[in-house]
Each structure stands twice: as structure tokens, then as C-alpha cells.
Design brief:
Elements: H1 2-34, E1 45-47, E2 57-59, H2 69-73, E3 80-86, E4 91-100, H3 109-113, E5 119-121, E6 136-138, H4 139-142, E7 156-158
The structure holds iron/sulfur cluster (SF4) (2 copies).
One iron/sulfur cluster binds near residues 67 and 81.
């Protein structure tokens, strides 16, 4: 009699253990379904840089007076201001201007001190290149209007990482009701 009960008892124990293991596995799965995704599916999704993000510098050639203040305030004297003196109008005439972003530390000093505000920092951060010499931007490249994440129809802009609520440092700490990091393009107020 006991010989028959033992296999049945073992079978019941193993069944119970299997159900318990499956339950534990599913509990981990369900726990993760509650969490917010923290990864960004770059390049299909991109984070919107914060308001004062210091990205690629924009330069307005016509506003530059060749004063070279930007060179003097730069910690590494980086901007190259190539000018000649125009004897007729007795003024400096800018011939060429360049900044090498392979060397620039994006401190923003040049932008801060430029007397004519012809320099500004943009939200452009995609400066990767196979050749570092390509990062030496001349006045034409510097004058190009910056790329905006919110204006690219091929990209889903994500705002969340730059705008986590006060005191929250981990996106997992956000209320479970908000299901994903960042907003969809239609939810973003571009004027804000
Ligand atoms: S951002 Fe800083 S390092 Fe770069 S060019 Fe301007 S002053 Fe120099
Ligand atoms: S500080 Fe401004 S105006 Fe002066 S040389 Fe530099 S970019 Fe031009």
C-alpha cells in the first residue's frame, strides 16, 4: 500500500514545486510589466536635450566683428578668427572662422562673452565622425541651422530623462500609471 502512495506523493510534490517555480517566474515578468522602460531606441527615439544643453555652437558670420574675444576667453584659445584690415572702411573684415569640436570642451565661454551674440549653443549632440578632422567646423558648417529632435518626422522625441519630477533620479520611481518614458510627438507642446 505504502509503495503505491510514495510515487503519488512524490508526483504531487514535484507538481507543486513546478507550479511554484512558474509562479515565481511570472511574478518577475508581471513586476517588469509595471515598470517604465528606461532604454531609448536610438536612432528611432531620441531624447530632447534640456533647455540649457551645451551642444554644437552656431555662428552668424555677418554679426562677427573679428574682435577675438572668443579666442581670449576660450581655455584653449580654440576659435580661429581669420581677418584682414580693410583700409577703405578702416575696419577688420572677417575672412574665415572655425572651431574644432574634436577639441572644444563645450564650456560656453565664447558664447557668454561674444559682444555681438553671434555665437550660440545649440541642442545638437550628434557629432560622431570616423575622422576627427571632420569635426573642425568652418564658418559655413557653423552657420548651419541646428538639428532639432522635435522637428524630425522620422524620430520619436522623448522628453522624460531631461524632465524627471523633482527628487526623482530613477525613472522606475515614477508612478506606475505613466507607462513609458517620454511623451509622444503629439503630446509635446513645442512652444513650452
Ligand atoms: S565652448 Fe569653450 S572650449 Fe569650446 S570654443 Fe567656446 S570657449 Fe573654447
Ligand atoms: S567674440 Fe564674437 S564677434 Fe568677437 S571674434 Fe569671436 S565670434 Fe566674432
Amino acid at each position: 500500500m505504502f509503495n503505491i502512495l510514495k510515487p503519488v506523493s512524490n508526483y504531487a510534490k514535484e507538481t507543486f514545486q513546478a507550479v511554484k517555480n512558474i509562479g515565481q517566474g511570472l511574478s518577475v515578468t508581471f513586476d517588469h510589466m509595471q515598470r517604465r522602460p528606461v532604454t531609448v531606441q536610438y536612432p528611432y527615439e531620441k531624447l530632447i536635450p534640456s533647455e540649457r544643453y551645451r551642444g554644437r555652437i552656431h555662428f552668424e558670420f555677418d554679426k562677427c566683428i573679428s574682435c577675438e574675444v572668443c579666442v581670449r576667453v576660450c581655455p584653449i584659445n580654440l576659435p580661429v578668427v581669420d581677418w584682414e584690415f580693410d583700409r577703405q572702411v578702416k575696419k577688420k573684415k572677417l575672412k574665415h572662422y572655425s572651431i574644432d569640436f574634436g577639441v572644444c570642451i563645450f564650456c560656453g565661454n565664447c558664447v557668454e562673452y561674444c559682444p555681438t551674440n553671434c555665437l550660440s549653443m545649440t541642442e545638437e549632440y550628434e557629432l560622431a565622425s570616423y575622422d576627427r578632422h571632420e569635426l573642425n567646423y568652418d564658418n559655413v558648417a557653423l552657420g548651419r541651422l541646428p538639428y532639432k529632435v522635435t522637428q524630425d518626422p522620422m524620430v520619436t522625441p522623448l522628453r522624460e530623462f531631461a524632465y524627471l519630477p523633482e527628487g526623482v533620479v530613477d525613472p522606475h520611481d515614477l508612478p506606475t500609471a505613466s507607462q513609458r518614458a517620454g511623451k509622444r510627438p503629439e503630446e509635446i507642446d513645442l512652444n513650452s
